[in-house]
Amino acid sequence: MPAPAPTRTDRKFLGRLSLPERQFVADALRAETVGGVLLLVAAITALVWANTGLSESYESVRDFHIGPSALGLDLSIQHWAADGLLAIFFFVAGIELKRELVAGELRDPKAAALPVIAALCGMIAPALVYILTNVVGDGSLDGWAVPTATDIAFALAVLAVIGTSLPSALRAFLLTLAVVDDLFAILIIAVFFTSDLNFAALGGAVAGLVVFGLLLHKGVRGWYIYVPLALVIWGLMYNSGIHATIAGVAMGLMLRCHHEGDEEHSPGEHIEHLVRPFSAGLAVPLFALLSAGVTISGKSMGEVFTQPVTLGVVLGLVVGKAVGIFGGTWLAARFTKAELNEDLAWPDVFAVATLAGIGFTVSLLIGELAFADDPALMDEVKAAVLVGSLIAAVLASILLKLRVRKYQALCAEEDRDEDHDGIPDVYEQDNPAYHLRMAEIYEKKAAEHRELAQLAGASRGNGDGPA
Using an 8 Å Cβ cutoff, are 331 and 153 in contact? Predict the structure, then answer.
């Protein structure tokens, strides 16, 4: 007598998304891709501007101060970009995180465990690579957090440039990785890059956040209420000594991101839809324009690979990220018995892990915070971020191109809609009504073929066609 088949208790990793989640991921990544292309253009513009005869004008614009000094806000244009514009970026990141926690991949602790572990390992490994490089090379440990960040917009821009479309499961995994990565980056900035606290300003910022939350809870509407309040909270947070971008995250997390009643979009989704174009299309590219302009020369490029600080950043992004995310994913899948989707392979996961080594926006921000007292070293670290991100982008492009035909076939299968009802066929295969419609379509096509065959036969019989 044969032994009974064992009960399947394992779960699919990178399995098919639900239709609403697939649509949300597609919409979110479409906006990020456009922002990523603008980010790429801004970075190239900054490099050209800073390495031509116009370099003095670049420095003049970047260092120009503006703002009310009485409020402690007499800042350079570069600081306004880093502390002000990026607060908008982190506000959107806060909304994304809230949505993932209540309605996305992170709402189920079992399903969330794998991407969270992967993202955490993808931050720990680069930090360890950086520390090891600088301990051996007797360098500074201050920049350990620089290679820990992933720039989802820049990564998607690379995909757009090389013309590769990832299957929805891989895109969702990359997006979830980036959201969790942003969360840990926020914690790193809040904990490790906080100067002496001004408790009066911090108390005012907390009070402002409480008022912000109460207004949301009461259902009060009107941008003319929330925008001035957000600016006050941001100004108080800046003067408290905690990085001002934390204010943006806190307000984003307060928004409701689940649906109530028959509403089509939650308030968080609606506001994200309004703010994301400003964040991706203006705030982040302007930050890149004012931060990525470092002097590039043969000597400076050589120092990137010979100085322990800069080499640690490059190795952290290129090696640490890939090994950390892939290793964390493989171990998590192994111990949680999550079976990989049969349409994909582990090299696909490694390619995405390599793509996550593009750490542009937040890495530049952390580099500015870590080496604020050493402008020369700050510029070298920025150059290392650019070089490391470029290497990661090239390696990921090669790995993804090796599987591009497989991805194209999977994407075509996901989008196939033979009954033209607006719902991909893969989501209707268990629906009897779908099979009835498909049978009717096939029968109609068969009848058309029979009619054409009869007409062709009659034509030959009348001598009108070839014998």
Answer: no
